[in-house]
Amino acid sequence: MSKANRIELFSLRSPQMRAFHLTWMAFFVCFFAWFACAPLMPVIKGEFHLTPGQIANINIAAVAVTILVRLIIGPMCDRFGPRKTYTGLLLAGAVPVIGVAFAQSYESFLFFRLLIGAVGASFVITQYHTSVMFAPNVVGTANAATAGWGNAGGGVAQGVMPLLMAALLMLGVSQGWGWRAALLVPGVLMLVMAALYWRFTQDCPEGNYDALRAAGVTIESGKRGGWASFRAAAANYRVWMLFITYGACFGVEIFIHNIAAIYYVEHFKLSLESAGIAAASFGLLALFARALGGFISDKVALAGGLNRRATLLFVMMLGEGLGLLWFAHAGSVVAAVIAMLCFGLFTHMACGATYALVPFIDRKALGGVAGIIGAGGNVGAVLAGFLMKGLGNTQQTLSMLGVLVTISALCAVAIRFTASDKSGEAVLADNKVAA
Question: Is the pTM here over 0.85, yes or no?
């Protein structure tokens, strides 16, 4: 069985489509868990009497450890296969997700928030799994759709968690226990998802890596994983260009998820529920915008080749940077939400366009490529957190980020592909086996 050259959205018959659906569902649950604390921060801030500096530390902790885990998780996919890697991450990640509900101090909350960041590495496995399952003519769309629908978990968390807590309060649960009980839900969902992923997916169209290697079959991702994959990816300059661009689009996305609700509460005096809904609108754009970015990338590549994918990414990041500047200077809550939706559209599309390029950078080190570029997103988020901590003002931070994103768009223009890269894509695109 070969890679699928079309996406049969309402089918679960093939291993490609089972991987497609289960990988975005697992990603959705992980992102829901990753950002479940963010919309409840106004309440948690009051319970632990947090200072602005401590809140900044929590936001940085939420994304810092993900950098390391993303770098490791990509080569692990090459070595152990995405099925084992994802199942293990879901099981291990559920522990701190449940544990944060039992935090009794700023220090313990910070510790669990740091560990929860590991589940953000789920993105790399999602992109890896769809990259090995789908042919070049649709891989951009497959990567962007699974990533976008999974990313929406962060947006859903922004809207659902305050409502879940409100429902618990209506049932008579105290506020101190309400946010804790609400945070148990994503941990349980991760355990359920781990069981489903293990039962119903396989590593690649031909089967699982262990069985294939035992039978002497050569796996397309090449090396047996580990540092060989990482070193090969790290030697490619295009990986580092995309590392920067992904830091500027996905890093900003994570940063907005972490600060949006509290920004709307403090800057525009919205209620917790209203702020959560406003913040959720940004994340919910991922339901279609990221997939749109990958879809457009696939279409422009058919018309003009791989270099057109990079040019498209430049345009999308330029739109993101200018939109972010608009959001930073919005004078009313209505203008702020409109601006957030506009720059959010470009942000999500830029993320999709970035990972539409990833499968073509180095197929023999796909795990290393996906891991390094994925880590770039978290580096961007961490740097944004330190920037806010240094400036001490969210509005100024957003303005500075808008300028930096606009400048970083130039890295997309620097990405160019050789004639052999393009001929390799053409050969693989001739794969006509459907899912």
Answer: no
